[in-house]
Structures are given as structure tokens and as C-alpha cells.
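Worked Example 4.2. Consider the chain below.
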Amino acid sequence: MSQFQSQSPPPLRHPVPTHPAYIPEPPSTPVSPQGYQRYSSSPGPQQQSAPAMQGYVPGHVPAYTSPFAHNQPQPSQHPQGGYHPSSQGVPPSGNMAAANGAGNIPPPDFGAWGIDGATAQLGMQLGHSAVAAGQEYMQRNFGTLFPSTNLKHHFNVSNSYVMLKLKLILFPWMHKPWVRKVRRTENGQSEWQPPREDINSPDLYIPVMAIVTYILLTAIHKGLEKNFNPKILGESASRAIAVVVLDFIFVQLGCYFLNIQGSSQVVDLIAYGGYKFVGVIATILAGFLKSGPLWTLVFIYSFLANAFFLLRSLRSVVLPDPSISISTNPNPTTTVTVNPAQRRRRITFLFFEAVLQILYMAILVRI
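Applying the procedure from the previous section yields the following C-alpha cells:
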């Protein structure tokens, strides 16, 4: 048993943990906001060996520092050796930012992305040129049809105007007069008063809201029938826009062939064509009651009210008043005379436009 004499096992040696002597700083970001203090790693060997002394303020934030430490005031050395709070590490705000110069933000360092300064400047110039060209194209092609000043004019409404205008559209039989009001600007030119000040002035607020309401009511109607599909929203919107465009084209062609000078603006004609959606909404709401005779009665009344409203409103477009035409015309010496034959043709066109409303409204209520 001597050859199997037991021997004691060798002592266990645990590995001694080692730490890197120095962790390199992370690469700097291209742009850092003003007053932002980055967290850095633990100080290097040369900084660790520096003795702590009174008034010493570290130039970095160690990795193990509390994330709220940079918001606390740091002590700074007073010329006499005392400690006084300072605002180092705290982003300036309010008047302090203005006093320190908020415009001293360093320019972006495009070199961090591998782009030199010349290439970056060229790209920025090309971007500005593309934006300017797009704005010029939109202004040249659509600025004459929908100028921003006209759009602001047609959306200048009030709550009282909207209520009175809806009453006028639904009950046009009781309204007088139908002549639009004119005002004189500071430059001596005449222009139409905004809808807020004139109930007879066309606006775009009611037509736009009526079209949106029509689309939503169409979706609700399909939902009540358990037949809703998201594409119904697009179909109803396309149908509404198509009807407005067809009505506008018909009026514009009539004004062209009848040689109607000084016809109303494009925005005015679109506004007049959009008022029919008020009667369409009333008809759809009547259809929710599941009463056929009531639906038919509301549809016929809405058509008659809209037709009468257009007869009186478009009269100023088809048969303009000479006095108002002179006051609103840039060249007051030019007058427009209408002989009896032209007057009869224009009145016939106006009645035909009013009768066509039953076709447009019939297309819209078929949901």
C-alpha cells in the first residue's frame, strides 16, 4: 500500500482581477448642444496620480458619477482660496443664455461623416435652389388660380356668419338683398368685402366642412349597414371632388362661350358649387330615419333650395351690375353692355345650371 500513499492536492490559485490602466475617450460627436456636458470614462494614469488639492475642479465627469451630478453647482476656487458655487456644467437658461451669446453655437462638423466642407456647402446650396425652384413652380402654375390672399379672404368667417349662411342656403326664399358689398382699400382700389362682413359673399369654410361631413356620414351609413370598408372614404371623397370639378368646368365653359367678361374668381365658383353639400347632408340624415317618403321630400326641397340659391347668387356673375362692374374694374372707362339676345342666352344658361343641380345631388346621395 506504500505505492498508493495519499498526497495532499496542490493549493488553489484564484485569478487576480486586473483593470485596464486607461480607458480611451469616446470619439466626439459632430455637434453638441451648448451647455451639454458629456460623460467620460475614468481618468487616465496621469490624472489618477495627481494629488487632491483644495480648489481642484475636475474637467470631466467620471463614468461612475451620478447622472444628476452635473446639474449640481460645482465648487470653484476663489482668488482668496474659498469655495464659491459656480454654474459650470449647468446649461444656461433665460437671460443667462442671452448674456453668454446663444448664437455662438459651433457649425456642424461634416468631417465626422466623411464629408468635407466644400461638398457640404455645395449640397446645401443645391437644396436651397431646389426648394426655391419648387416654390416658383407652384406660384407660377397654381398661384394665379389659388392665390394665398384669396384663400385667406374666403376663410375669413365668424360663428354668426356660418349660422346665417346655413340659414340662407336652406331657406333662400326669405333673404333680401342678394347684392354683394364693395369696400375701398387704402390704395383707392375696390374689392369685395370678406364673408365675415357680408352674408352674400361666398366662402370656402362651409363647402370644405360640408365635404368632410359628407365623407364621414357616408362611412357611418355603411357602418350601420354592416358593410363598412376603408376604401369607402376614398370613394366618397373622389365622388365629391369629381362633382365639384364638373360643376366648375360647366360654369367656366358657359362663361367662355357666352363671352361673360369680368366673371367671378375661380375660388368663388368653387365655393358656390360646394354649397350643394349642405342639402346633400340633410338628405342623408333623413335617410337614417328609414322613411322613404321623408327622404324623397327632403331631397326635393334641398334641390329646390339649392337651385334658387344659385339662381340668385350666380346672377351677379352671369348678369353683372354695370355700376358694380365699373367700381371693381381696374379700368373704369371700360363698360360691358349686354343686348337683349345675350341676356336671354345668359338667363337660359343660368336656369340650366340650376336644373343640373338635381343630377349632381342625385349622384352624391347614392351611397
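Confidence is low (pLDDT under 50) at residues 44-102, 326-335. Residues 231-257 form the longest helix (27 residues). Compare this with Example 4.1 before moving on.
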